[in-house]
Amino acid sequence: MENRISVISIIIEDNACAARVNELLHEYGDYIIGRMGLPYRQRQLSIICIVMDAPSNAVSTLSGKLGMLSGVSTKTVTAKTTNEKKEGI
Q1: Which CATH number fits domain 3-78: 3.30.2290.10, 3.40.50.300, 3.30.70.1150, 3.90.1300.10?
Q2: DSSP secondary structure letters along 38-75
Q3: Taking Cα atoms as reference points, which of 54, 40, 43, 39 lies closest to residue 7?
Q4: What is the SS3 assignment for 26?
Q5: Which of 16, 30, 31, 85 has the most CB atoms around it within 10 Å of its CB?
């Protein structure tokens, strides 16, 4: 299965879930090429954006596991093409 670039946006409304979210992200760490987290203290939630280079099934499994957590919402966007890395670039 070909790897694609995907972005998973995660909103954590219950900070009690933060440790489990981090555990799941660690499990898929080999696929994660970037992560940005923003605590939004005024609204008492956290926003995390994960960029992955992974097969579609790995992305959907991670997104599904995250979305099943109470107090966590996710949305995934995947690039339409694979654009495999070229030699020398």
Answers
A1: 3.30.70.1150
A2: EEEGGGTEEEEEEEEEEEHHHHHHHHHHHHTSTTEEEE
A3: 54
A4: helix
A5: 31
